[in-house]
Amino acid sequence: MTDALTDNILVLVRHGESEWNKLNLFTGWRNPDLTEKGVIEARVAGRMIRDHRVKFDIAFTSALKRAQRTLDIILSELHQPDVPIIRNPALNERDYGALSGLNKDEARKKWGESQVQLWRRSYDIAPPDGESLKDTLARVRPYYDEAIWPQITAGKNVIIVAHGNSLRSLVMILENLSKDEILERELATGAPILYRLGADGKAIDRKDLLPARSLAAPPEDRIV
């Protein structure tokens, strides 16, 4: 067991594998639940955080059940069921618009391989009726500044359980990454990231927690 972590700790966790992750579907704002594997990933995430003895003061999650259920499982594993939880759609996954609910292969047949890859890989090109990563960042950043960062500056430990692209937006903010640098980053399901933050809100220390034998699903919400 490691030494206990103290103030200004922020933990990010992408939800466990969802039913649509397993089916290789674009999910976005649709609301499938966790698979059995996703539940296991959430439990393992909670146990890994518990090994670092982080006591949380507040938790944030999205309006979608796969993230909410992952957070509930993590807090149960931490034996911290009374942590206040704030749920807000600002932390929802990127909206895939017309791609939502489609299998990746179906999308390629409908729009073509190159167009689907452009939507998935680019920083600022959105699918029809959907969001780009740039759009996702535009709603995540003000919410972080107004709701989450004040909790950290008050000396509170915070956990955020959300989605691949909403969390990638937060990583951009915390690590001051460019739009090109963030496209190289992947977030595995159920793999906690522990940050210690400086007074300016930037990460001064990052620790990725991965199980000895990764249970992570292929990242459905990844851009690359």
Using the 3D structure, state the CATH architecture of the domain at 9-95 and 146-152 and 173-208.
Answer: 3-Layer(aba) Sandwich
Number of helices: 8
For the record, what is the CATH homologous superfamily label of the domain at 9-95 and 146-152 and 173-208?
Phosphoglycerate mutase-like
Q: What about the largest sheet?
A: 6 strands, mixed
The top-level CATH class of the domain at 9-95 and 146-152 and 173-208 is: Alpha Beta
Chain-wise SSE layout:
Layout: E1 9-14, H1 19-22, H2 36-51, E2 58-61, H3 65-77, E3 85-87, H4 104-111, H5 113-121, H6 133-153, E4 158-162, H7 164-175, H8 179-182, E5 193-197, E6 203-208
Parallel strand pairs: 1-4, 2-3, 2-4
Antiparallel strand pairs: 1-5, 5-6
Helix pairs in contact: 2-3, 4-5, 6-7
Active site: 15 (tele-phosphohistidine intermediate), 93 (proton donor/acceptor)
Pfam families: His_Phos_1 (PF00300)
InterPro entries: His_Pase_superF_clade-1 (IPR013078), His_PPase_superfam (IPR029033), PG/BPGM_mutase_AS (IPR001345), Phosphogly_mut1 (IPR005952)
